[in-house]
Design brief:
The protein is α/β, with parallel strands linked by helices. It is built from 35 helices and 11 strands. The strands form 3 sheets. The protein has a 6-stranded parallel beta sheet, with helices on both faces. Helix 14 packs across helix 16 and helix 20 runs antiparallel to helix 21.
Amino acid sequence: MLNTSQRRILAHLSAFPRDLESSWDVPRGLSLPGIAEAVGVVRSAVHAPLRELESSGYVTTRSTNTIGTGTRKRKVVHITEKGREAISSEPLETSRRGPSSGPIPNQGVIFGRDTEAAEISTMITNGSSVILNGLPGIGKTSLARLVAEQMLNSGWRVRWATCSVDTDVESMAVMWLGRMAQTSSSSIASAAGSNRTLLVIDEAQQLSPRHIGGISQLITDCSQTDASMLIVVRAPNPFGELPGFYECRLDGISEEDALQLLPDELEEEKALGVVRALGGHPLALNLWSPDDELPERAEAVQSYVETTVIHRISEEGIGSLNEFCISPLPIRVEEMAFSDGANELDESAILRWSLDLAEPHHLIRNVRRASLPEGELRGMHRIQEIHWKKREGARARRMEMHHHINSDRELDVDLLQISLSEIAIQSSASAAVLVEQAMENCDDEVLRMIAVDLALERAESDIARSYLEGLSEGPKRQLRLARLARIEGNQPLSEELLATAIDSLEPADRVREEVSRIVRMHDDRLPGTLESDAAARISQLIETVDISELADREREVASLSLDLLRHAIALDRGDISTASSARSAIESRMGQDSPRVRELNLRAMLSASTTGAISKEILSTLRSYLESVDNHLDRLRMTHLAMSVCGKEIPNWLQKSHMDDNPQQLENGISAHRRIKAQWWYWRGVIEPENRLSNWREAVNRFKSAECNNAARELIGQLSNQI
């Protein structure tokens, strides 16, 4: 007859498909550490039940590679057909009545938390929000996962977010809502905060101070919805006091429950001694080895980790542990410089995993980092900088720059600036964190300028203003102050600052700013025909741009930009003659077969159509164009123009084309991209009337960050009518 431990092991193994028995690479869940985590016991506690299961023919073992844990082979366990038959009467509960999203950790067995889980679940069911705090390794995430499971089984929706140092409002929204999520806190709250929904923020203490303000506002906005929140954090709480939240402090588990984590064959007296010495601390108990001396009762958990757990690690294991501990983010074993000891760390229950990414348990990391001298730490960072420099991609640059900033060599501002431009394309949140860290060590004018630009691109007015105060006087500062004023909706101040700055610029920079200003004025509106007064003013401004002092190449680029503007304005005004003249000038420069000329022809055809009466022939031409053009920005621009012309009768294929063209791949650092992103959210609100409120709230914030205040004000008016 199977005992409890054996049933848990077989139930876990039965979830894996049979074909893994002959596979070269298998999931980590089939290894001894993976099995121990799944059944909720220390690794040594699975040896005896596994031996009995193997001798009875319920499981087999072999050595092979486990996915994501390095190249060294390790022992894995497979359930046999006899084992599947034995456990078939107790199938795993796999169905969930409630939907979930985000990186919810795997559910393992958890001992001793039934009372706390029931209390928290009851509070959440009654509409309350909870802050769950406690020491590192005390089991906060495991308890939160148990609560989430209970809520899912009662039909609730669970949206889970796990924080890292790079997590900001936008990345949290992606975890909660998916890749096409909103980015402003008000629109995220509107989209995510529905009734019978639990919003989880795990590992909140990992957040960078750079992003605490934004996340705090998100929590405030979500607290005003029908959803409940569960925030999991290690003290001190980075958000301070949160009104309306109940605080739950998690302590060690009872002796009775703690004993269940230890091997059954361990003498009761010794087992009790271990439990009492470690204060029922779940992680410390999992770190305990039968080969360890009995811990002193007075010994704090941190001291036990330093003097016993870390002390028994081999030299190879220490090398891997150091690399894990100084990494800003979880890493893959195969991308490590010192990976030889990774398996040892895993076997010793030191690592925590999320798919193929690993990091030390925070208790281990904190203890190890605190024990390393500052000079030694900086030397380690230098070695890691060299290691990541050899790898390609934005993630590698993010890791390289973290180690560069914290290394023992002088900060290379030029290198950092180049790397940040690549990092920001993928994650402006990561770039913002790195700049903040760099400025703690080096208050450089270039760094401050980068920090201002990042904050402006992210529409973080207060942060941008704080950095602007430290910039030297001059046109560069004036231009950024003008941009800040536009983001904040103060157009008169913006125009005043811009005029002052332009007068001080070199000819090429002056023309660039003048053209950018005109383009903004043209784009600062909701879809539809440009008002005649605005069109006339823009046309006048185009003719005032002086390009005579520019070099030949610069003059050519500026002239082309102005002709493109003339063509767009002429189409808006129905001025066929001027549009034709501008088109001819553009064609003479770019050639008849240019994709840009093809686009202009299609724009002319669409602009000539009566709203709601676009012909089948034009729609066919449009569809062919959208299917053939590679440029994401051009495709979205044409899609939006076509939807504007179609009015209320937008074809299904055109709606699908719009939704499939996810604007996330566009760069926030380019003003045209920010504007098209705002328009995309506007049109999403048109296409999805059931989600119009959250989509248009997002569009309003996007228009503001794109410095299109007229469009934002107009849409706010439409939103008011909707409400």
